[in-house]
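INSTRUCTION: Work out how this chain folds

Fields: amino acid sequence; protein backbone structure tokens

Chain under study, with its fold:
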Amino acid sequence: MRHDIIFKPLEFRNLTVKNRIVRSNIAGRFDNYDGSGNQARINWEEKFARGGVGAILSSFVPVAIRGRIVPNYATIDCDERIPFWRKVGEKVHEYDCRFIMQLSHSGRQQDIRGIENRHRKALSSTNKIEAFHGIVCQAMTREEIKQTIQFFADGARRAREADLDGVELHGANGYLITQFLSSAINDRQDEYGGSLANRARFLLEIVDAIRHTVGQDFHVQVKISAEDHNNALYPWEGKGNTLADTIQICKWLEQRGVDAVHVSSGSLFPHPRNPPGTFPVETARDSYDTMLSEGVRTRFNYRMFSSKLLQPFFRWAWYRTVKDIVHAKAFEGVNVRYAEAIKRNVAIPVLCTGGFQTASFIADVLERGLCDAVSIARPLLANNDLVTLFAQGKEPDKPCTYCNKCMLNALENPLGCYDISRYEGDYDKMVREILTVFTPAPFEESQSFHNAVPVPTKATG
């Protein structure tokens, strides 16, 4: 059965997308350490454009080196980055797919600092350490706030000069903008803290600066956490922003000229509600060592992941607020009720993320007007051609199991589907599929290189 509403074009104020499915912001450490991009990133984005999505949201693209979550993510921090991103957009456009760059800043949620940030604290709205990993940070000065707002505006200008189709501000999941928005994180006493209007000031000033820089005819959207659930992992933490808070923020964003909002949830990443699914502690044990020197709580976390005695405590902490979701395996559409509430209060399109992968479910959500489009990440890792299957009236033979091994491997391994059951238990087959992102190679060896290198001979003497 075809679900025609999925393939009805979506009209934004400044942009038309051919269908209602967007590849959400997900990518691995494919790029160069210094923030420049390479062919692997182009290959990565092409996978999903070829698979039929209407638009691609880039992965987290730092507007400044100090704001990156890990090295090896391509940045938009200088004009020299523009030609690379233009190549990415050109490749995606070959498939009648739009490309929207996610402008981002880690704030205190900086998983791997890299050599540039090794000896300085992460920037944030607060001096409080990040709750999960214990990453040390410092509250931004007014001058640093002003400078960072300009970084976002410059990033939007560069995205436009690269002929991309729009930008998304990452205001969700615990990154810098969330750190200002959230009542559980932002403890400032100046005009950027306290009341909801003050906490939203940073985001709204970014929007104003972007509109001043790129004009009104360029697509700008915001990803936002509908509810923080900041106490989901540790019950002694504050809850943070409510849905009512976020609805008001979205109204302000609409008034400031934002073209769409993208609804998620959670005040950190990963979060029990984002991404919804299981938390494979064994996989965390194998990859989390990459972060041991990054925060004051990382060694404690690593001991929990590694100890059979402590693993039950972590599982209790992780699942205690989402037991009903995990027990029922109700991971698909976990944020729909938030999107519906926000959509009732704004006139701009609302996108929703959260485990979508069944055509009938997606079509029902769209038919009922609960949101205008859905964004998908992990199920598209499992089945890059998911949208093509939907167009053929099919569902995937091997749907995503929401095991989240992809998420935890991404810290130190190439991003891909790590659910070995999808490969009949064949580990080598799984690795070959994951490594297809490097074909064609990031660089091609020239014949002259081969001619210039002497052929090794057997050592003598």
Summary: The chain has a mean pLDDT of 94. The CA atoms of residues 123 and 389 lie 44 Å apart. The chain has 17 helices and twelve strands.
